[in-house]
Amino acid sequence: ERRQERYWGATAFAMIQRWVREGMLMDRMKEAKLGKYKLMEKAFRQLVHLRLPSLDFPNTRTSAEVNRLILTSVEGIGLKTASLFLLHSVEGCKIAVLDTHLLKYLRKLYPKARVPKASPQCPDKYRQIEDMWLGYCYRNDRDPATYDLEIWNNK
User: Fold this and answer.
1) CA-CA distance, 16 to 19, in Å (whole number)?
2) Angle of helix 100-109 relative to helix 144-153, nearest 10 degrees?
3) HSE on the CB side for 35, CA within 13 Å?
4) DSSP type of residue 100
5) The 3-state secondary structure of 51-94, one letter per residue
């Protein structure tokens, strides 16, 4: 509750920008016990200087792809991390965070499909599995982010 009050009204990204500007980033990362401090600090510092062009425009699959490509140019950020950032930073973002819980769920849904156990590092494979998940969500009239959270909570 104390943490919620401290950050009330500011996005996580806005808080990171502030902490970088005020020299508080490392303290806040240690307080949150993020781990990989040097790598994370370098990535966060690069992130605050990036201009993600389509965060200002209506969300489309193309804008999510452009932003994900830009984010993966930051050392330490792969497809899964970029997707996680966008999913929780852009309202209505229709992308998938291919974490182990979601991949396991997809293997149960599609036992004959070649769904990997770990998040794919190849962009084409990532999009193929992501399309499988998004297609399933759309066919079942479910919001991908909300449904992912339900699966996470029931794992």
Assistant:
1) 5
2) 100
3) 0
4) H
5) CCHHHHCCCCHHHHHHHHHHHCCCCCCCHHHHHHHHHCCCCCCC
Counted residue by residue, the chain has a size of: 155
In angstroms, the CA 61 to CA 118 distance is: 23
In angstroms, what is the C-alpha Rg of the chain? 17
Give the pTM: 0.70
Contact 126, 103 (CB under 8 A): no
- In tens digits, the chain (155 residues) has pLDDT values of 334 344 445 666 778 888 888 999 999 889 888 777 888 888 888 888 776 655 544 455 667 788 888 888 888 888 998 888 788 777 777 889 999 999 999 999 999 999 999 999 999 999 999 999 999 999 999 988 888 888 888 87
State the CB neighbour count (10 A cutoff) for residue 97.
23
CA 125-130-80 angle, 5° bins = 80
CA–CA gap between residue 99 and residue 34 (Å, rounded): 18
The two structure tokens encoding residue 123: 């962009």
